[in-house]
Write a structure and sequence with these properties.
1085 residues, alpha+beta, Multidrug efflux transporter AcrB transmembrane fold, Alpha-Beta Plaits, nine-stranded antiparallel β-sheet, 34 helices, elongated
Length: 1085
């Protein structure tokens, strides 16, 4: 390794060129590297959305969901299959193991879809199959509003003009627009006129089909040309549908105009979008999994003028709920904190060395190391995200260590009176291997990231890479850039306060030692050095420090054993009191809440109560403090089945509301949510609410769960699962900090059960199909029984034609009973061939394997996720043993938390074991390795106490800080123990060696530790999501510094007191081996 230093000193211009190359290529990397909130998460998912208009949930579950599930079991890499069936839709989520070949999996899914459909009911449409990723979540909404256009016109403009343009915007994918419905030519039949003309809805459908069908155009060859012969088999003007005859022959003819009206409208409304309390249309903007959030949002904003120009002027487009704001804010905060950290680090180095030239050298290594890391991150396909930025910010303090140790050692050699070039060469040469060992130890701390799995690996690996790359760059800079710049910038005379203490491994100084010399008496040495100069404050501190160490050495055994015992007890106590989370909580300026009316409530009533809830929220926070509200009420149209991936609602009784608050209002969300719960419980007691994730971080960590607590109860009989769920709910309600406890599925959906008497229907010349078709046309539309198309001559786009009875004319049970069934007769009606009774059925059926599921959801108020998960597990246990065939599973963020903490704890233990083995191999001593690791308990104690003091939890960020503190602690200990062991071999006294090493290392330990602490202060005090990382580092370093200076010398003195001075080498040719003999010496030419 000395060759690295020698090569740099011999080629200083090449070193400078290398630094310029780093700056240049980092600039290129910064312009190309994607910027996002999170790293790419290896959680591959495929959604299958199967619409079947109007089909009941139980039939969809049995005929569709079960068939798909059986076939998807053949797909490679399947980890889990989740199925949801509501009226008209089955939604299937296929989760795959990390590393699955998704191109192959997609192909297999498509094959199994085709196989499964062969066994499904006639009329089953091909499903929409979408490859999805956990990070492919909405990053904003394009909102369409108009004062003059109808909602359907706005919907058509958004769907037919704007959405196709998304293909030209890089990184964007989008579901269909939310809020309107597909444009349709609607033939609205008057049921009274039908009866008066003895017609059925089915006759109207057949008449339209007979008079409006696309037909092939032939050719006729006349003269020189071949003429096409198109026929006006398609109606061009919607009003021409009125002239279609329905009944001809004997008696007066009956036309559509006699029994119906025709409107250029939309399919039956099943859902509304509401923006600021008014019906509107919006398109969620979805970034592709490999795209950058920031780039996608910037691309959308850049395309806004082009998008606006593509639609009528009276439709206004705006971009709302911009999630990139959080990304930009996170980047800006981390960059600011990193800059402040570097500044404070430089000031700390200046305070100790009192030489601005040294400060410049040290501080210059920080940006060069960071820029080098960015180049490498870009090369390995990483992004700039909250984890890589946290790693770089965390590394800033450690980066100082390499350069600072080198500069400090150069100063020590200069203070010995050596020529500058010699001092630099010898100082760099003697610490290059210890610094390399330190580099390996810090990298080893983060190495477990490579063996983690799932989200913990996806989150931890980018942070580990950023720290590792920065540390490698810092090590190389310390051996090349620092000595070159030191030769050019440092003065030849002594800098700062003078002290010619023992330099690391300086054999010339060691030779002057003997057992009677009191070189450890720093006070005598300093007075003898220069009586004309005053002793500096730092030297006085060192004198007191030496006196303290001498006293502590008299009680080494008690001190060391007491320290270990107390540390273990404190760690156990801290783990008992400290909470656990996946990531620190943030107070964003937006929230999302789901409102549930009693099952089956009409969409109009749900909309009214939604507006009432918005009004109450405005009263609580003030209208001026709300930037925008956006909501979706009701279900998704069957034409847009895929939309349920992004916003799932189980029916007209549900609404999902998003509220964006003014950031300047500084409103605390948790107390606000509690107020909303309280007010709505009084004003709208029938309304159940549940707050859901809205921020990118929350959505990604939730992995599709709507609440942090989610419990699935499975059984073959859904009633059995529901019965046991009530036991669990009773226990959950005893937990004071749980909120919004409810069952997610509508299990008691009101229904009119229509039981057809097939024998009676047959006697009247009817089949159950005849009855069903007339009933569907009357209660829904003919779109689900007979397809009919119309071509708009203006836009050139095709739309469906459907027959339906207006909803406002089907409002009573009698209207259902009086639906005519037979052509040319007012009787029989539905009531003549069927028994109609009111009942309740499941409005949603969820399935996992052979079990149907009932899901309990709950939110947490004022508690950490880990404590809540433990209490929920206890509540489930208190609910009693589930009946035979009933299973209970905890899902949601709690499961992810357990996986994450388990991975991190295992990783920390593994890192310590790896470091121990590496140190043992280097020092050739198990004792010295244990001595170096003796400061680790102090680091853990310090981090945990600081987190408790700051009110933080154990989470991914704080664990990272704790792990990094372990690495820094080991780095300080390596240098001290290396120094002490070298001195022991000469002084033959472990206590004297410990004193000399402590005296030599006190300044660099204090300097590097305080510099890193200073660098972490901006991050720790930021109040942002990365604050616990800084807090853990500061706490760990404070205790680590105390342990390194006070405990470590005593650990070394105690364990090495009776250790032999002989080398452990077995080589007879090794001069240091006790087996060495001159007769074995081999002469090499």
């Amino acid at each position: 390794m000395n060759n690295i230093i020698r090569s740099a000193l011999r080629n200083p211009i090449a070193v400078v060129v290398g630094m310029l190359a780093i700056v240049f290529f980092s600039w290129i990397s910064l312009t190309k590297i994607p910027v996002d909130i999170f790293p790419a998460l290896d959680l591959p998912t495929i959604y299958v959305a199967e619409p079947y208009g109007g089909l009941a949930p139980d039939q969809l579950d049995g005929f569709v969901a079960a068939q798909y599930q059986n076939n998807f079991l053949y797909v490679s890499g399947i980890k889990n299959i989740e199925l949801k069936s509501i009226q008209g839709l089955t939604l299937i989520k296929l989760s795959f193991y990390p590393g699955t070949n998704m191109a192959q999996a997609s192909s297999e899914v498509a094959n199994q879809v085709n196989r499964a459909r062969a066994l499904m009911p006639a009329g089953t449409l091909p499903p929409q199959v979408v490859r999805f990723d956990a990070s492919s979540v909405p990053i904003g909404e394009l909102v369409f509003q108009s004062q003059t256009k109808t909602l359907n016109e706005v919907q058509d403009a958004a769907a037919s003009r704007i959405r196709p343009m998304f293909s030209t915007i890089q990184g964007v994918s989008s579901p269909p627009p939310f809020g309107g419905n597909q444009r349709t030519i609607v033939v609205k039949v008057n049921p009274d006129q039908l009866r008066s003309h003895n017609l059925t809805p089915e006759e109207v459908v057949r008449a339209i089909a007979a008079n409006n069908q696309p037909s092939a155009a032939g050719n006729i060859r006349v003269g020189r040309f071949a003429y096409m012969t198109p026929v006006n088999s398609l109606i061009k003007n919607p009003q021409e549908f009125l002239d279609i005859p329905v009944k001809t022959g004997s008696g007066p003819a009956v036309y559509i105009r006699d029994i119906a009206s025709v409107e250029d409208a939309a399919d039956v409304t099943v859902g509304y979008a509401e923006v600021n309390g008014k019906r509107a249309v919006y398109i969620p903007v979805i970034k592709k999994s490999d795209a950058s959030t920031l780039d996608v949002v910037n691309n959308i904003k850049a395309a806004m003028p082009r998008l606006q120009a593509a639609i009528p002027q009276d439709i206004h487009i705006s971009y709302e709920f911009d999630q990139s704001v959080y990304v930009v804010q996170a980047i800006r905060n981390l960059a600011t904190e990193g800059g402040l950290g570097a500044l404070l680090t430089g000031l700390m180095v200046l305070l100790f060395l009192r030489d601005w030239r040294s400060v410049i050298i040290v501080v210059l290594t920080i940006p060069l190391s960071i820029l080098s890391a960015i180049i490498l991150l870009n090369m390995v396909g990483q992004t700039i995200n909250i984890m890589t930025l946290s790693g770089l910010a965390l590394a800033i303090g450690v980066l100082v260590d390499q350069a600072t140790v080198t500069i400090e050692n150069i100063h020590q050699h200069l203070e010995m009176g050596k020529p500058k070039s010699v001092a630099i060469w010898e100082a760099c040469k003697e610490i290059v291997f210890p610094e390399f060992l330190i580099l390996l130890c810090i990298i080893a701390v983060f190495a477990p990231a490579f063996i983690m799995e799932g989200i913990p690996k996806s989150m931890f690996l980018p942070l580990s890479l950023s720290v590792g790359f920065a540390m490698i760059a810092s090590f190389l800079l310390a051996q090349t850039f620092v000595p070159v710049l030191a030769n050019w910038m440092l003065k030849s005379h002594v800098h700062g306060h003078e002290h010619a203490t023992l330099a690391l491994g300086d054999r010339e100084t060691e030779k002057v030692m003997d057992e009677d010399s009191e070189l450890h008496d720093e006070e005598a040495r300093l007075k003898a050095h220069d009586k004309s100069k005053k002793i500096s404050g730092f030297d006085k501190f060192k004198i007191r420090y030496n006196h303290l160490l001498v006293k502590l050495q008299q009680r080494q055994k008690v001190l060391v054993t007491g320290y270990l015992l107390v540390a273990v007890l404190i760690i156990i106590a801290c783990f008992h009191f400290i909470g656990t989370d996946i990531l620190p909580k943030t107070n964003s300026a937006q929230f999302q809440v789901r409102l549930r009316e009693p099952d089956g409530t009409r969409i109009e009533r749900t909309e009214d109560d939604l507006l009432g809830a918005i009004a109450q929220i405005k009263k609580l926070v003030g209208s001026e403090n709300i930037e925008i509200t956006s909501a979706y009420v009701g279900g998704m149209p069957s034409s847009y089945a895929i939309s349920s991936i992004f916003t799932f609602t189980s029916g007209p009784h549900e609404a999902v509301l998003q509220v964006a608050l003014d950031e300047n209002a500084k409103i605390q969300l948790d107390p606000l949510k509690e107020k909303i719960r309280s007010v709505l419980a009084k004003v709208q007691p029938q309304l159940k609410i549940s707050f859901e994730p809205i921020e990118l971080t929350e959505k990604i960590m939730s992995q599709g769960s709507t609440t942090p607590i989610e419990i699935s109860i499975g059984a073959k009989d859904v009633n059995q699962a529901y019965s046991f769920s009530q036991n669990i709910i009773r226990e959950l309600k005893k937990i004071s900090f749980l909120r919004d406890i409810q069952i997610a599925q509508p299990l008691k959906y009101p229904a009119f059960n229509i039981h057809i008497n097939r024998e009676l229907a047959g006697q009247l010349g009817l089949t159950s199909t005849d009855v069903t078709k007339s009933m569907i046309t009357a209660t829904s539309s003919s779109r689900f029984t007979d397809k009919n198309l119309w071509l708009d001559p203006k836009s050139g786009l095709g739309y469906q034609v459907q027959v339906q009875i207006p909803e406002n004319q089907m409002t009573k049970e009698n209207d259902l009973e009086d639906i005519p069934l037979k052509a040319g007769q007012s009787r029989p009606a539905l009531t003549d061939v069927a028994n109609i009774s009111q009942t309740f059925i499941p409005g949603e059926i969820d399935r996992e394997g052979s079990n149907r599921l009932v899901t309990i959801t709950a939110n947490i108020y004022g508690k950490d996720l880990g404590t809540a998960g433990t209490m929920v597990d206890q509540a489930i246990a208190n609910a009693g043993a589930p009946p035979r065939g009933v299973t209970v599973k905890t899902k949601g963020q709690v499961t992810l938390l357990k996986e994450t903490l388990s991975s991190l704890q295992s990783g920390l233990v593994l890192a310590i074991v790896v470091i121990f083995l590496m140190l043992t191999a280097n020092f050739k001593s198990f004792k010295l390795s244990l001595a170096i690791l003796s400061t680790v308990p102090a680091v853990i104690v310090g981090s945990l106490l600081m987190l408790l003091l700051c009110g933080a939890t154990l989470n991914l960020q704080s664990y990272m800080g704790m792990i990094m503190s372990v690495g820094v602690s080991v780095a300080n200990a390596i240098l001290m123990i290396t120094n002490a062991e070298n001195v022991r071999l000469v002084a033959r006294d472990s206590n004297k060696a410990a004193l000399m090493a402590a005296n030599s290392r006190i300044r660099p330990i204090l300097m590097t530790s305080l510099a890193m602490i200073a660098g972490m202060i901006p991050m720790a005090s930021s109040g942002e999501q990365v604050a616990p990382l800084g807090q853990a580092v500061i706490g760990g370093l404070i205790m680590s510094t105390l342990a390194s200076l006070l405990l470590l010398p005593n650990v070394f003195g105690w364990i090495q007191k009776k250790t032999s001075l002989d080398s452990v080498s077995l080589d007879p040719e090794d001069e240091n081996s006790k087996f060495y003999h001159q007769s074995h010496q081999v002469t090499h030419n």
